[in-house]
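step: validate -> pass
step: tokenize input -> pass
step: predict -> running
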Amino acid sequence: MPSIEIRAATRSDLPGLNEIYNHYVLNTHMTFDVEPITSDARSEWFSHYDTTGRYRIFVAVEEGLVKGYASSSRWRPRQAYETSVETSVYLAPADVGLGLGPRLYEGLFRALEGEDVHRAYAGIALPNEASIALHERFGFRQVAHFTEQGRKFGRFWDVAWFEKSL
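step: predict -> pass
step: emit ->
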């Protein structure tokens, strides 16, 4: 059985990252993007990540195929927020429930150790029990619940915000 590698993402991973993300755009309420992300937009998005520092992206790869990714991104644009990050995990639909989410977060949070990051935040569109369980497993706790925060597929969705001290 092939093994899955968890590593920092590279530009060559962008098509796989985009395919995974666009699945969630088109088929779920788990992201509030409503139109698929283009390759050019994905490339611009990737330019905000590095192999050191606060803003990282890790992939799970098996035999050259991206199976999922986890990222830490800028929380808000104002300078006082720079020690806070927003984290996300997305998995290929066929690979949900196989333990990749925890492995990706382990890699991400290990990489953030020693960086100047004070808090991590995660917004979870509800319902999403699997994402809540993953975040709680990593020490996140719910700090807010916004009702009807986003509209997608003709209805409004609540969002819970989770926080983790780093």
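step: describe -> The chain is about 25% helix and 35% strand.
step: cleanup -> pass
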